[in-house]
Amino acid sequence: MRKTMRNCVAAVALISMAISGCAGKLAPGKLAQKPSVNLRSVRLEDLSFEALQLVADLQIKNPNPFGISLAGLDYRLEVSGHPLLSGTQQGGLKVPAEGEGAVQLPVQIIFHQLHEALGALADADSADYALEVGLRFELPIVGQVNVPLKHSARLPVLKLPEVHLQGIRLKRLSLSAAEIGLVLGVSNPNALSFSLQGLEYSLDVHGARWLSGFAEQLGQVPAKGSAELELPATIDFAQLGRAAYRLLASGGSLPYRLRGKIELGSVLPFFRAAPIAFDKSGEASLLR
Questions:
Q1: Can you spell out the DSSP letters for 218-278?
Q2: Other C-beta atoms lying within 10 Å of the C-beta of residue 99
Q3: Ranges for all domains in the chain classified under CATH 2.60.40.10
Q4: What is the 3-state secondary structure (H, E, C) of 190-203?
Q5: Tell me: the pLDDT tens digits for 22-76?
Q6: Where in the chain is the domain with CATH 2.60.40.1820?
Q7: Pick the CATH number of 162-287 from 2.60.40.1820, 3.40.50.1820, 1.10.1040.10, 1.10.510.10
Q8: What is the DSSP string of 6-75?
Q9: How far is CA 231 from each of CA 179, 200, 218, rounded to the nearest angstrom?
Q10: Closest Cα partner for 134 from 183, 83, 77, 96?
Q11: What is the CATH number of domain 32-156?
Q12: Which of 14, 25, 67, 268 is the 20 to 30 A CA-CA neighbour of 79?
């Protein structure tokens, strides 16, 4: 029992010495001061058709004659005045006496979640956002203090481009083969232009596989515009059978299913290209 009491007294003494050590560095009658936090920038680090990531760079200044610790931070993001997400980031940063420290806060916004929460943004190219951050610091004697920060700006909102079959152009027809052009349209609802870097596709007509292939470097899709692509191909009736010949010779519409992936690029350094899958079906016009 006496040993336990001696251990408790020793522990209290050590804590008291630590507190008095920090307090002793302050002027008489003066308490520890709150650190100041400056928002150096909020940058767009990653952008794709799926999501974007903002990174807030925070600069911390410690006015005290002793080091302090960042216990953690809480954040809340509103888009167009509506709460979208919130979270907590662990601390660990040590800011030296009368020194500075830096911390980064990444915030990811998933576009489909944004559209689900705010249907009014379905046709918008950008939206207002407000980021609120509260940084929690541990100060001797005073305890934990919170330093709030708020930033407002606009963020881009991307929407998926659409791929559709405009028709099948019949260039030449013989008893053994047909030369055709697969005419595709790519529509871009965004305020940014994109380059057509690659296209993987397959075309089924009347349940039979007519075409499959891959094409690269297909030009540009302008902002708020569309591009037309014509992919040349040869239909071999020895492989597909006479049914394919009769469908083309009839001159009528062709029941089809078009599937594949398209990859779009951008001159923006933070844009991350990713394949966009498409699956379309309907009646294709035979163009001449």
A1: --EE-TT-EEEEEEEEEEEHHHH-HHHHHHHHH-S-EEEEEEEEEEEE-S-TTB---EEEE
A2: 14
A3: 32-156
A4: CCCCEEEEEEEEEE
A5: 544 555 446 789 999 999 999 999 999 999 999 999 999 999 999 999 999 999 9
A6: 162-287
A7: 2.60.40.1820
A8: HHHHHHHHHHHHHHHHHHTTSPTT-PPPPPEEEEEEEEEEEE-SSEEEEEEEEEEE--SSS-EEEEEEEE
A9: 11, 11, 10
A10: 77
A11: 2.60.40.10
A12: 268
- Strand 162-173, strand 177-187: pairing: antiparallel
Provide the edge-to-edge strand list for the sheet that holds 36-47.
Answer: 36-47, 51-61, 100-110
Strand partners, 139: 143
Would you state the structure tokens that stand for residue 83, as one six-digit string? 């709460």
For the record, the structure tokens of 264 come out as 């779009």
Q: Residue 21: is it exposed, middle or buried by C-beta count within 10 angstroms (0-12/13-18/19+)?
A: exposed
